[in-house]
Amino acid sequence: MFDGTKEVFEVAKKADSVSVIAVTEEKKILFLEESQPGINSYFSMPGGHLDFKDEDLIQAGLRELREETGYTSSDIELWFQFQPAVKIDYVSNILVARGCKRVDEVKELKGERIKVLELEFDELLEKIRDERFYNLDIKLELLLAQTDLKRMEKLRALLYGS
């Protein structure tokens, strides 16, 4: 403690995650409608947990992108990192992948059904307002960009190039 005494503080530890804002060669943004047993369907960006100890953020993002959409990219970078909770040791890493190409089919797992949608940028800005949009960190950034012209310009440049 700050006064030198000792107390027990509990903090949960969870695997870090990646989410990918994936922009296709046709300038569409990949957006997922997902279903899992026992959970109402929801919207999200491609992503998941880092599965392997030696997997870096870019590798994890590319793996999740391919598994969930069948797409890959050779132009992917970290956009921002976010720690969603104080008492949970975990970081949400948001990546942007440009020039995405379909190279495979969606890998449907036993506990997950995924429908891949291709959205125009303005359609994405509407979809994130849906209460079923799961990525609150991305939602916040996109909503903030809608209130700040310079932020919006930077976002569009990040997604589509200068």
Give your account of this protein's structure.
There is one protein chain. The chain is 26% helix and 35% strand. The termini are far apart. It contains 4 helices and 10 strands. The chain has a single domain, classed as Nucleoside Triphosphate Pyrophosphohydrolase (Alpha-Beta Complex). The strands form 3 sheets. Strands 2, 5, 6, 7 and 9 form a 5-stranded mixed sheet that branches. It is of the alpha+beta class and 162 residues long.
**How much of the polypeptide forms β-strand, as a percent range?**
35-45%
CATH class: Alpha Beta
Please report the number of helical segments: 4
CATH homologous superfamily title: Nucleoside Triphosphate Pyrophosphohydrolase
Outline the biggest β-sheet. Answer: 5 strands, mixed
What structural class do the secondary elements suggest? alpha+beta
What is the 3D form? globular
- CATH names the topology as Nucleoside Triphosphate Pyrophosphohydrolase
Distance between the termini: 49 Å
Name the helicity range.
25-40%
Radius of gyration: 17 Å
Mean pLDDT: 93
The counted number of beta strands is 10
How many discrete structural domains?
1
Written as H for each helix and E for each strand, in order along the chain, the element string is EEEEEHEEEEEHHH
Annotated CATH architecture: Alpha-Beta Complex
Give the low-pLDDT segments: none
